[in-house]
């Protein structure tokens, strides 16, 4: 699968295209399932200014958006963080979530337990490896799903009332991470309504109603409702790559 994500930001004076390849590896591979490259152009004349590692930027900007959603939507006294999945996004989410928030316990589950153990041994803080997704989720205040699942791996009857879920995987219209019960009984936030209704199997197949875009919450146009069970469905937007790439380029230019 080859995706092309062009975007222009007048506010940032930035024009980019991200090229991303996706391969569903049937066996564990040393090559990530997603690889990306970002081309940064000069908006004035279209000349190429830089080629950037899109995989790093994708990992960091995706985790950053999840962190913003969590800042607004998580319960007031969140103590337990749960991560389902142990790939690249698990690492980037762990890094920013443990930097910005204080959790008393971090749990992880992965379909292949060896990868979860490797994750726990690689990160800086203590992580409890769980033998099942249900064990990891039970009692968690903040849940992050960053899996390659095509059918639900997170079920509503496992989830603590008032918890916040960042659903990052299942980026195709026929893929799921969350079951109907969780989708329909939570307040649903998305990064883009248009994208969610055409690309997210969790949203499309459950028929769940979208309450707000995250941007509407950040701008004060819609309430966050952290006292309720909330789901943020993240698909990613090209403009996030554009802003991040321009930030990296400007920082690099200033250093030179």
From TrEMBL:
Q: Which Gene3D superfamilies match?
A: NAD(P)-binding Rossmann-like Domain, ornithine cyclodeaminase, domain 1
- Name the reaction it catalyses: L-proline + NAD(+) = 1-pyrroline-2-carboxylate + NADH + H(+); L-pipecolate + NADP(+) = Delta(1)-piperideine-2-carboxylate + NADPH + H(+); (3R)-1,4-thiomorpholine-3-carboxylate + NADP(+) = 3,4-dehydrothiomorpholine-3-carboxylate + NADPH + 2 H(+); Delta(2)-thiazoline-2-carboxylate + NADPH + 2 H(+) = L-thiazolidine-2-carboxylate + NADP(+)
- Superkingdom of the source species: Eukaryota
Which BP terms does GO give this entry?
thyroid hormone metabolic process
EC number(s) reported in the record: 1.5.1.1, 1.5.1.25
Pfam families in UniProt: OCD_Mu_crystall
Q: Which SUPFAM superfamilies match?
A: NAD(P)-binding Rossmann-fold domains (SSF51735)
Q: Which EC class does it fall in?
A: oxidoreductase
The record's GO CC annotations read: cytoplasm
Q: Extract one GO molecular function annotation from the record.
A: pyrroline-2-carboxylate reductase activity
Give the multimer and partner information.
Homodimer. Binds the thyroid hormone triiodothyronine (T3); T3 binding inhibits enzymatic activity.
Q: Which family does it belong to?
A: Belongs to the ornithine cyclodeaminase/mu-crystallin family.
Query: Which protein, by its recorded name, is this?
Result: Ketimine reductase mu-crystallin
């Amino acid at each position: 699968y080859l995706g092309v994500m062009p975007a222009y930001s007048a506010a940032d004076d930035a024009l980019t295209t991200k090229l991303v390849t996706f391969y569903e590896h049937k066996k564990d591979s040393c090559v990530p399932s997603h690889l990306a490259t970002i081309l940064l152009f000069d908006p004035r004349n279209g000349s190429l200014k830089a080629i950037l590692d899109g995989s790093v930027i994708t990992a960091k900007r995706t985790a950053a958006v999840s962190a913003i959603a969590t800042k607004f939507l998580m319960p007031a006294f969140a103590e337990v963080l749960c991560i389902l999945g142990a790939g690249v996004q698990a690492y980037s989410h762990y890094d920013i979530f443990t930097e910005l928030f204080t959790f008393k316990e971090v749990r992880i589950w992965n379909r292949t337990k060896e990868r979860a153990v490797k994750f726990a041994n690689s990160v800086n803080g203590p992580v409890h490896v769980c033998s099942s997704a249900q064990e990891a989720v039970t009692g968690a205040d903040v849940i992050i799903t960053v899996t390659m699942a095509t059918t639900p791996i997170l079920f509503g009857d496992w989830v603590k009332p008032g918890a916040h879920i960042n659903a990052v995987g299942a980026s195709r219209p026929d893929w799921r991470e969350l079951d109907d019960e969780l989708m329909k009984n939570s307040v649903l936030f998305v990064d883009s309504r248009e994208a969610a209704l055409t690309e997210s199997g969790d949203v499309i197949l459950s028929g769940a109603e979208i309450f707000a875009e995250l941007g509407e919450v950040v701008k004060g146009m819609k309430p966050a409702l952290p006292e309720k069970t909330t789901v943020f469905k993240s698909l990613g937007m090209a403009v996030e790559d554009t802003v991040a790439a321009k930030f990296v380029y400007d920082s690099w230019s200033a250093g030179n």
